[in-house]
Write a structure and sequence with these properties.
Elements lengths: L6 H5 L7 H17 L13 H12 L4 H9 L2 H5 L3 H7 L2 H14 L6 H17 L2 H15 L6 H21 L3 H15 L1 H13 L6 H16 L6 E6 L2 H10 L11 E7 L2 H14 L8 E2 L12 E8 L2 E9 H9 L22 H4 L26 H7 L7 H12 L3 E5 L5 E5 L4 H8 L1 H5 L1 E6 L2 E3 L11 E5 L7 H6 L3 H17 L2
Parallel strand pairs: 2-5
Antiparallel strand pairs: 1-2, 3-4, 4-5, 6-7, 8-9, 8-10
């Protein structure tokens, strides 16, 4: 049985914290430990192990003292009868705001479709105010996912499906790739037990559990880079997560021979120029697979992900994916938005170090988060303080048909994505099978309303053409054009369909 950890385990993970932060975390640790005294988890272990572990996860991510304290305290209001006033007086208002945000996410239980959709709306409403609440909630869910074996079988299935359909997808949209994978693989056996067994066997038969071929090509790549005079680099190997493998099998008609990224080697370098130099070396020494080169450095994903991907033949019929990126890109790929909120993101004077993705991150969070104290922060906040997809869900009224709300979330925000470019190089991410109509409405409703056609990769195309990943799309408009009922068949996103229905409804009322 796991024992309660010492606060030193958390403090040792902090990166050069000021003394007042250390004292604040110690105080929150003792406060929460006392508040949860005598409470047990389903496993029979002391309940305090849960908030302690969540806080430790956040410390590993390099999160702020306030976030770590909020994690330690996040169940004290709901489960221990601690008042909001007490937390505010004992700690500070920012910690109280975070605790209240996480507490509100736990007050609606996921029972029944209507309550499930309402709780999701509240989840995004809380996130739209401060994304740090979501990061804490993701760590809370991760620990619960890793301890599902102690939960009743009926609750196991429900929690596992929620984790896959919502929380893992949120982690992905926030760029937190490593958290997404951990959530998925922790709950896969409980969500789909038969599929888990089947996929586990296919993965093993495909050699996914045999490290020898991976180790061999890994050594060859390191040796070859050294021969070319590349000295300042590090590498790591990645074996595809089992749930990710399962989802890809579904997309590839269960033909494992079509999956080329079961294994990957990451090459991490100091500069962007080094990345392109190494790409040239890799292609000079190993034959790349046509159509498998993806440059997310030149064209980052909308969640900020940057890296170069290429798939190469290793000889004897084997293939492997190579991912090339800088250290900053690697941290962003692993931890996404969390990598920009950590102690490590600050220099000795506590001033925020600029990074290429910082502008993207600032969409999510009030500016005060980037400063050591509220007094140091400017009084203004960023425009559009949260990304459009979160704001859209948060502002959705409690739906009369909750199944439509859930379908919209899954279809428009958490489905398999494609990345389509405007002529200026801006990235628009859309669900798979989207059309130029979806693209147009994603830019602006007025553009959507007046679309007459599209140039896809400089070729004129109809508005019902299925877009592919990497397409460059230019929308052709005409002021006389307007939505028709046929457009509802062409549109794939619920956002586009809603705009079309509203327009048709207004038109119908004007011409009864």
């Amino acid at each position: 049985m796991q024992k309660i950890g010492d606060v030193k385990e958390i403090l040792d993970l902090l990166h050069s914290p000021p003394k007042e932060d250390l004292e604040l975390v110690k105080k929150a640790y003792e406060f929460a430990k006392e508040a949860h005294s005598g409470q047990k988890r389903f496993s029979g272990e002391p309940y305090f192990i849960h908030p302690f572990t969540v806080a430790k996860y956040l410390a590993k991510l390099g999160m702020s003292a306030n976030m770590i304290c909020a994690a330690l305290l996040h169940d004290t209001i709901e489960d221990c009868g601690v008042t909001e006033e007490t937390i505010k007086n004992e700690f500070n208002e920012d910690i109280l705001t975070l605790v209240e945000g996480v507490t509100k996410l736990g007050t609606v239980r996921y029972q029944g479709l209507k309550r499930h959709s309402e709780s999701l709306r509240k989840l995004f409403a809380a996130t739209s105010k401060d994304v740090r609440v979501m990061i804490i909630k993701l760590m809370d869910r991760l620990h619960n996912a890793r301890t599902l074996e102690y939960v009743r079988p009926d609750k196991q299935k429900r929690i596992a499906l929620e984790t896959l359909e919502i929380y893992a997808q949120v982690a992905d949209r926030l760029g937190m790739g490593i958290i997404k994978r951990e959530l998925e693989d922790a709950v896969f056996p409980y969500a789909y037990p038969e599929e888990y067994k089947k996929v586990k066997k296919i993965f093993k038969d495909a050699g996914g559990t045999d490290p020898k071929p991976l180790e061999k090509i890994h050594k060859s790549i390191k040796k070859k880079l050294a021969e070319y005079g590349i000295k300042d680099f590090k590498t790591e190997v990645r074996i595809k997560g089992l749930y990710s493998f399962y989802k890809k099998l579904q997309r590839k008609d269960w033909d494992v021979s079509k999956i080329h990224d079961i294994w990957a080697i990451r090459i991490i370098l100091p500069t962007v120029a080094d990345c392109y130099t190494v790409l040239g070396i890799i292609h000079a020494e190993w034959k790349p697979l046509p159509g498998r080169i993806k440059d997310y450095i030149a064209f980052p994903k909308p969640n900020g992900y940057r890296s170069i991907h290429t798939t190469i033949h290793t000889g004897r019929g084997g293939v492997i994916e190579v991912q090339i990126r800088t250290e900053d890109m690697h941290q962003e790929a692993q931890f996404g938005i969390a990598s920009h909120l950590s102690y490590k993101a600050y220099d000795g004077s506590q001033k925020r170090k600029e990074s290429p993705a910082l502008k993207w991150v600032k969409q999510f969070i009030p500016m005060r988060t980037f400063y050591k104290s509220t007094e140091d922060a400017p009084t203004t906040y960023t425009n559009n303080a949260v990304p459009e997809w979160i704001r859209h869900i948060a502002n959705t009224e409690s739906p009369e048909k909750p199944e439509e709300f859930l379908n919209e979330i899954k279809t428009d925000f958490f489905s398999h994505r494609i990345f389509v470019f405007t002529p200026k190089g801006d990235v628009i991410d859309l669900p798979i099978d989207s059309t130029p109509i979806d693209f147009a409405y994603a830019i602006h409703s007025d553009i959507g309303h007046h679309i007459t056609g599209a140039k896809i990769n400089s070729k004129m195309s109809s508005i019902d053409t299925t877009l592919k990943n990497g397409d460059i799309v230019e929308i052709i408009t005409n002021k006389k054009a307007h939505p028709t009922r046929k457009w509802l068949d062409y549109a794939k996103t619920n956002v586009a369909k809603r705009f079309i229905r509203v327009y048709l409804s207004k038109k119908s009322n004007q011409n009864p």
